[in-house]
Amino acid sequence: MGRRITDLSSSEFSALFTGFEHTAYRLERWPWYGVGYEDASFREWQERRPVQHDPERDAWTGMVRDAVTAGKVFQRVHLVGGLTDYLRYEFEHWYTANTAAGDDVRIWPEPPAGWPTGLPLWDYWLFDSRDLWAMHYDNAYRFLYAEKIDDPAVIVQCSYWRDAALHNAIPFTDYMRRAELLAAS
């Protein structure tokens, strides 16, 4: 068991996103995330009330924008087996803002036979292809902790899955365009 971070708002967790040199990559597997800071904006979105101001989102997209302006790369791939209300919210409220800030967000829709075997059973952040953090959630998709993984073989495997996911995933804006076309037909 590696070092753990249990608070997403801690300075230790925030330092992961300001301390990397070149790349920050995220693999997301789940149809819903219970991370606390989204609760109010998700509720407003569900009630179809416009989200007036979201300081968490604004802080995040500002940090992404600053990193991208400095020449760093933010990328994420979300494995999507079917759309949930939460994913619709995430797409509309977060991913639209993330891509505008320079985050390379991609969606990997589930192929008929499912995703390739061997994908890790946890989400992860991979910084500079060497600093790996497994994101752990309970059965209700509520955040538990981020765990540092130091095993070089696991880091190489997660780098491989990053490359495969980026290759197979659809850029978020293309995915949304396709979804709009399907809804219109």
Please characterize this protein's 3D structure.
The protein has 185 residues and is α+β, with helices and mostly antiparallel strands. It has one domain: Endonuclease Chain A (Endonuclease, Chain A), CATH 3.30.870.10. 43% of the residues lie in helices and 23% in strands. It contains 6 helices and 8 strands, in the order E-H-E-H-H-E-H-E-E-E-E-H-E-H. It has an 8-stranded mixed sheet with strand order 1-7-6-5-2-3-4-8, with helices on both faces. A hairpin with a 3-residue loop joins strand 5 (123-127) and strand 6. Helix 3 (55-69) runs parallel beside helix 4 (85-101). The longest helix is centred in the middle third of the chain and has 17 residues, at 85-101. The chain is globular, with a radius of gyration of 16 Å. The N and C termini lie far apart (50 Å).
Short description:
The protein is of the alpha+beta class.
Can you give keywords for this protein?
about 180 residues; Endonuclease, Chain A; 6 helices; 8 strands; globular
